[in-house]
From TrEMBL:
Residue ranges, compositional bias (Acidic residues): 9-21
UniProt xrefs under Pfam families: Ku_N
Ku70/Ku80 N-terminal alpha/beta domain: residues covered: 34-194
Name of the protein described by the UniProt record: Ku70/Ku80 N-terminal alpha/beta domain-containing protein
Origin superkingdom: Eukaryota
InterPro entries cross-referenced by the UniProt entry: Ku70, Ku_N, vWFA_dom_sf
Region (Disordered): 1-27, 173-199
Length: 210
């Protein structure tokens, strides 16, 4: 977990740098920060490490919980969403995207959400995830599209739009070049749209569990 904590600390430092870059004179970008966690729910994510080490999914839930609690303390008005892809079940606005499960819509963090993330941790959490979402086919392009749609009902001014992908798979589509192209295209579209609409840095990162 030291590596994950270090990553999150670096994330805070970079956010401060970005805010400094976009401030000058009497003008400074204002508004709420927003962050979407897009988490791989494939079977590979639930495999435990050697000597009973936590699975990649469990470590990811620990990171998500840490961010939720940190936001509640320091920036409770920021918006966070938790979305799973590669699921068997589908749950998203109008169920437009198969194998994408929106666990938390973009909203302010709170104690209830922390409890719901806790419910997905450890062995019982893995069982709950399997029962609730399951593991199915993967289309990262559809998942990114779904995440973009989460912003459509947000009327608030947002200073940043962030999307973080957690996965342990270098080839989530199993060599399907068409799906790979779709995902790259959608990621590019998201970044360009975020920059033009918000007039601020829109950061999209991929975090690979190891």
């Amino acid at each position: 977990m030291a590596e994950w904590n270090e990553f999150y600390q670096n994330e805070d430092e970079q956010q401060e740098e970005e805010e400094a870059e976009f401030s000058g004179g009497d003008y400074k970008v204002s508004g709420r920060d927003s962050l979407v966690f897009l988490v791989d729910a494939s079977k590979e994510m639930f495999i435990k490490g050697e000597d009973g080490q936590p699975s990649n999914f469990d470590m990811t839930m620990q990171v998500v919980r840490s961010v939720y609690t940190s936001k509640i303390i320091s920036s409770h008005r920021d918006l966070i969403a938790l979305v799973f892809y590669g699921t068997e079940q589908s749950k998203n606005p109008r169920n437009s995207f198969k194998h994408v499960y929106v666990y938390h819509d973009l909203d302010e963090p709170g104690a209830k959400r922390v409890q719901e993330v806790d419910a997905l941790r450890r062995e019982k959490g893995a069982q709950l995830a399997a029962q609730t979402m399951g593991s199915g086919e993967t289309s990262l392009g559809d998942a990114l599209w779904c995440c973009a749609n989460l912003y459509s009902d947000i009327k608030l001014r947002l200073s940043h739009k962030r999307l973080m992908i957690f996965t342990c798979r270098d080839e989530p589509h199993g060599g399907d070049s068409a799906k790979d192209r779709q995902a790259r295209t959608k990621a590019s579209d998201l970044k360009e749209t975020g920059q033009s609409e918000e007039k601020a840095a829109s950061v999209y990162r991929t975090v690979f569990c190891t």
